[in-house]
Amino acid sequence: MRYSGVQAFRHSGDRNLCPPAAWEAEARSAWNRRGFTLVELIIVLGILLMAASAAVPAFLRFQQGAQIQLAARRTMALAAEARGLAITRDTGVTLTYDRSAHGLRMTVDPPDLDTENAAAPGAMPAGESLTGDRRLLEYPLDVAVEIVQPDPSLPGELRFRPDGKASEATLSLSREGFEGVTLGLNPRTGRFHVLP
After folding, report:
1. Position with higher pLDDT, 31 vs 68
2. Distance (Å, rounded) from C-alpha 108 to C-alpha 100?
3. b or e along 112-146 (b: 16 or more beta carbons within 10 Å of the residue's beta carbon)?
4. Taking Cα atoms as reference points, which of 115, 109, 106, 72 lies closest to residue 91?
């Protein structure tokens, strides 16, 4: 078999006879044609799996911690809505923890009074033709909820009055293994604030 150019020098056994630029060009073209070996692919996949095994649990912990923060923001929004309803309807509004639904239920007092539509006795208040379950803020099942009153003899509820004030209480949201959130209800303003 007859070889020409760089191949002839390579097969002659004497690399010193071949010009260095020709060997570099052939080495580059051989490298470009070369693929990854199975061992290289397994090593890269192993490194990626180790990185993923460290990142996935951290992401899950972040996501579960964010769920508590989201539940706290939704609780504050529901309390603001309850306060607004108490003021605009000139009636009391109560937020109670419903254990069977694992959520905070809003009750407008009295539920059958409709000041805007007095011709329909027993009707839902204006704009509230939806079922009562629409006024339920459900929490994730692994989040513990506790409403604490300063006086232990009082029921565990958050009560908003028509003047915008509220009962003094704290609401705690916690999850095992995570830092919980405690919200304090200011009795003079009727607004929640995050306690340290």
Report:
1. 68
2. 20
3. ebbeeeeeeeeebbeebeeeeeebebebeeebebe
4. 109
Beta strands (DSSP E) in the chain are 93-98, 103-108, 136-138, 144-148, 157-160, 169-174, 181-185, 192-195
Rounded Cα–Cα distance for residues 56 and 59 (Å):
5
Beta bridge partners of 172: 146, 182
Distance CA 70, CA 72 (A): 5
Helices (H) and strands (E) in the chain, counts: 3, 8
Hey, which residues does 166 pair with through a beta bridge?
160
Residues 52-96: pLDDT tens digits? 888 888 887 777 778 888 888 998 999 999 899 889 888 888 888
**In which order are the strands placed within the sheet that holds 93-98?**
136-138, 103-108, 93-98, 157-160
pLDDT tier at 32 (50, 70, 90 boundaries)? low
Mean of pLDDT over the chain: 77
Give pLDDT tens digits for 146-177.
888 888 777 788 889 999 899 898 888 888 87
Angle at 175 between CA 169 and CA 176, to 5 degrees: 130
Work out the angle at residue 96's Cα, subtended by the Cα atoms of residues 91 and 97, and round it to the nearest 5 degrees: 165
